[in-house]
Specification:
alpha/beta, Rossmann fold, 2 domains, 11 helices, 38% helix, 19% strand, globular, hydrolase activity, P2CMN_synthase_LarB, PurE_dom, PurE domain-containing protein
Length: 252
């Protein structure tokens, strides 16, 4: 249940369309439901506007299916499952309507097909090898109701590729800049746009890249103003934060 659904239910009680007993039944599992291996936060949507997101890595297919099943019983839509293996996705597809993207290992259950998308988020990548992280960010932002434009393989080794998209970059409310190697892309974009830039270091690179630490340190030391940094390979975190910024009231 999210803010809108809760308000509709309360108005229904006020107007007599929903009985207090029925409303109580819908709220009886609040604020969370303990199913043994997980405590499902049924009020996440009320507090944050987004249902609880399931981190799939380290969970069995049965655990993921069990969590999703309980969330569906509580009326959740747009349930995001990150780092979802193909094996777990195959099990999940047998019980519910799953949209699965194998490159980022990203699943969306019970997508709200009529949900409006707003604003303008750009996801830019240094190279094609960063695509899994980019898609995790882009798909997260789209599932949360944002318009997303993808600019892939526009890294600094061929700067003209990025500069050819200046008009698109200028129209963005938020830019997510994803890069491995030396992680220079966010600094370059940060010097070209007037909107917030969310930098995502990836683990892509040769030995001295240190699994993304080199890119992380480069981004943390960016000389461009307005650049913030999330963790290595954390496309989900970047997409979620970009959605928050894009949907802030008063943002034009």
């Amino acid at each position: 249940m999210d803010h809108k659904e809760m308000l509709e239910m309360l108005n229904g009680v006020k107007e007599g369309a929903i009985s207090p007993d029925d409303a109580l039944t819908r709220l009886k599992t609040a604020p969370f439901e303990d199913i043994g291996y997980a405590k499902i936060d049924n009020h996440r949507g009320i507090r944050q506007g987004v249902p609880e997101v399931i981190y799939g890595m380290g969970k069995t297919a049965g655990q993921i299916c069990g969590i999703v099943d309980r969330m569906l019983e509580n009326g959740a839509k747009d349930i995001i499952v990150t780092r979802l293996s193909e094996e777990a996705a195959a099990s999940l597809e047998k019980q519910c309507r799953l949209e699965y993207h194998p490159i980022p290992k990203f699943g969306i259950v019970n997508r709200d097909s009529v949900r409006d998308k707003t604003g303008s988020i750009i996801v830019a990548s240094g190279g094609t090898s960063d695509m899994a992280v980019c898609e995790e960010a882009a798909l997260t932002a789209e599932a949360l109701g944002n318009q997303v434009t993808r600019l892939y393989d526009v890294g600094v080794a061929g700067l003209h590729r990025l500069l050819s998209h200046l008009e698109i970059l200028a129209s963005a409310r938020v830019v997510i800049a994803v890069a491995g190697m030396e992680g220079a892309l966010p600094s370059v974009i940060g010097g070209l746009v007037s909107c917030p830039v969310i930098a995502v270091p990836t683990s892509v690179g040769y030995g001295a890249n240190l699994g993304g630490i080199a890119a992380l340190l480069s981004m943390l030391n960016s000389c461009a103003s307005g650049v913030s940094v999330v963790n290595i390979d954390n496309g989900f975190g970047a997409g979620f934060l970009a959605s928050r910024i894009n949907q802030m009231e008063g943002v034009k």
